Amino acid sequence: MQLEGSCHCGSVKFSVEAPSPVPFMRCYCSICRKTAGGGGYAINLGADAGTLKVRGKRYLRKYQAVMREEGKPDRQSSGQRHFCGRCGSALWLWDPTWPELVHPHASAIDTPLPVPPENAHILLDSKADWVVVEGKRGDPRFDSYPDFSLAEWHERHAKKKGTRR
Which residue stretches, if any, does this entry annotate as coiled coil (predicted)? Predict the structure, then answer.
């Protein structure tokens, strides 16, 4: 599916192909929460980095978070969070560890997205105390990273429907 996205002020617009554009995973980590805002979480999609086309590149800025773990030295994340330098809208994350993938923020997508059959709530061990984890009964919840990949989640739900995505 072709996804069209933009920042709030319209300075940056982008398009990207996503094989399964279902916004199902809500990340509650402190980095997503503080850089993307929302309900105390961010929702990222998976897309083909080779198809990303950007207009307004001069307004793009990148942020690489500092990873802090107790008892370990601080280190810079390899993940590059792209945002608009004019309005601050979070747009996508790209990480050279997985160069074929780009993760647009669902909040930046202008194309109508399908409603997921469930939401996976991840990194709940870093959720802010004020955040209430909302969702459907039976939604999978994880204190850290889930035991499945984005592709595996889509495959499992496609099989339930009897179709492939």
Answer: none
Token pair for 48 = 């083909």
pTM to 2 decimals? 0.83
DSSP strand E in 59-134: where? Answer: 60-63, 66-67, 75-76, 80-84, 90-94, 101-104, 120-122
Q: Is the pLDDT of residue 159 over 60?
A: no
Domain boundaries, the chain: 2-161
Pick the CATH number of 2-161 from 1.20.1420.30, 2.170.150.70, 1.10.1530.10, 1.10.1740.10: 2.170.150.70
pLDDT at 162 over 50: no
Model confidence pLDDT, tens digit, residues 20-51: 888 778 888 888 888 887 777 888 888 999 99
